[in-house]
Amino acid sequence: MGFTYPVRAPEGVLSTEQIHQLLSNPDLIAKRVLQLVDQKFIADYLLPGRYEAKNGAAFYKNGQPLFADDVPREVAPGGEYPNSTLSDGDPMSARTVKWGIGSEVTDEQVTNEGIAAVNVGLQRLANSVVKQVDSVAMSVIASKLTSTFAGSAWTTPGAILESLLAAANDRSELGTGINLNTVVLAPAHFAKVQGLLLDKNALPRENGNTVLNGTAPIEVFGFTWVTTPYFKGKNPLLVDRDLLGGVADQKIKSPEFTAAGHYGVEASTIRDADRDTYKLRARRVCVPIVTDSSAGVAITGSGLN
After folding, report:
1. Does residue 222 come out as left (phi exceeding 0), alpha (psi in the -120 to 50 range) or beta?
2. In 10 A of CB 164, how many CB atoms?
């Protein structure tokens, strides 16, 4: 029997001169950092709203209603439409923080290691920015979602579904328009639930089976399931991503930094000719915001912790 082992196609070999040209181009460095962080921020996934921060702060409305104050009424032909007041949320503000990190790549590293030295350095910087922003975002989400729902132990797929539906229905019955549809779990709990669903044949077959395709987020029972190592909670969270909140990014005008994409991540490269090095830096100036604390609930009694 023969075996095949697919490997990733090797990157083109860059000469030392080409690597120096790359390191001298902030736009290319910013694009490379963007590739490394693309779709890796759990903060932007759970908080998809976008706010622009100015003067070091973001202003937003907290608890803004989804419906008009009055209900629609029958309108006769040629008649006037009833006018309704649109209540506003409470004005709030949040201060942005500049999360940044830097490192150096020496000419010796470029000569001896080639582009690998640059890629490793940028990867570590990008990972560090993602870790910090996501850690802060998950702490903010966990602190804002103070309501709980007492569910049953998650020992069978049916018990899991019953708890999720009961929690979602409990919130929807308030008539606020909130639709709790995303489950957030710590990695160990996520693995335990997937194993349970697999053992009980509750996962779809073939391409829909997350164990086979290894994708995340996953869709099971009509809910989206996500996990992140930066969520430290003991109880599963059930949230409405559309209404939970967003992330406010601030653009600081620094001539050395270049932004690429829409995640607010910026990068810079500075040549230090006196020391034969390049200074690599990555940053994100932002603040995660929860605009509606009722758009999520912690489910107790699951027995996962």
Report:
1. left
2. 23
pLDDT at 11: 59
| pLDDT tens readout for residues 84-114 | 777 777 778 899 999 999 999 999 999 999 9
Query: Judging by beta carbons within 10 Å of its beta carbon (0-12, 13-18, 19+), is residue 81 exposed, middle or buried?
Result: exposed
- The rounded Cα 132 to chain-centroid distance in angstroms is 12
Q: Is the peptide bond before 217 cis (omega within 30 degrees of 0)?
A: yes
Mean pLDDT, rounded, for 176-203: 91
φ/ψ of 165, rounded to 5, equals -65, -40
Distance spanning both ends of the chain, measured CA to CA: 45
**Residues forming beta bridges with residue 252, ordered by sequence position:** none
pLDDT at 274 over 90: yes
**Is CATH 3.90.1690 the right assignment for the domain spanning 16-62+92-300?**
yes
Q: Is the pLDDT of residue 10 over 60?
A: no
**Parallel, antiparallel, or unpaired: how do β-strands 182-185 and 223-227 relate?**
parallel
What mean pLDDT is reported for the chain? Answer: 88
Cα dist from 146 to 1, 17, 151, 187, 231, whole Å: 58, 56, 16, 21, 15
The token pair at 3 is 């075996």
Q: How far is CA 71 from CA 77, 85, 209, 212, in A?
A: 19, 11, 44, 48
Distance CA 230, CA 234 (A): 12
Residues whose CB is less than 8 angstroms from the CB of residue 161 and which lie 6 or more positions away in sequence, other chains included: 221
